[in-house]
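#random but structural
TW: two for the price of one
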Amino acid sequence: MADADDVRHLAGALPHVVEIDSEGFDFRVADKGFVWSYPERRPGRPRLIRTDVAVLYVGDEAEKQALLLGEPELFFTTPAYDGLPLVMLRLAQVDAERLGELVTDAWRMRVPESLVADLDGGSAP
């Protein structure tokens, strides 16, 4: 069972990451978001920043659909994210090890190739 503190710890430990000041969590690498708190939109009401749900960058529609169909207990989406390579992750349903893999994968998809070696200890991607 993971939470916002786990996201902060895992994302913040990755090279070249900046946490943007927000009501929840919002992590960027090279000015590109890779994991942030879900801004739930509610008709007629202000959006609610959900720190129990992480939005993850997944790279492409095929990966998005694989996650949504393969693990619907963990991942979901909304119409606002149609056509975008993003999924929402229910943090309470994932353990810290899997969360670490997901956050690192999201980071790898957003970081410039020239900086990947900083995570891999100097090896090529």
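TW: number two ↓
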Amino acid sequence: MSLTVGNRNDVTELLPLIEKIPPVRGRRGRPRQRPDELFADRAYDHDKYRKAVRGKGIRPRIARRGQPHGSGLGIYRWVIERTIAWYHGMKRLRIRWERRDDMHEAFLSLATCIITYRHVVRLC
């Protein structure tokens, strides 16, 4: 997770966010350091970012501008949008009132714990 100011473009955090990805667990042996694919919406549609992501050994699945939907990104994206809606269900996180970053991240972590708890209770 990366916390930035509200009026900053998301694309500026793409490569630092990829660098923060922990090793991917899987089969025995040396763990993979990167995921196989990166799904992104049209905001990241630029050859510069595609080349940078490929340079990291990740296959970019970035939607193209001006093309109709159908790339399959909606299948994965609704999970993210739903989770963001759950965060907005916590009144304190709808609008950021805290001036300190660590306090806001603490409330995000607490909300994540609450959301996970509710999900586990519903499944069990």
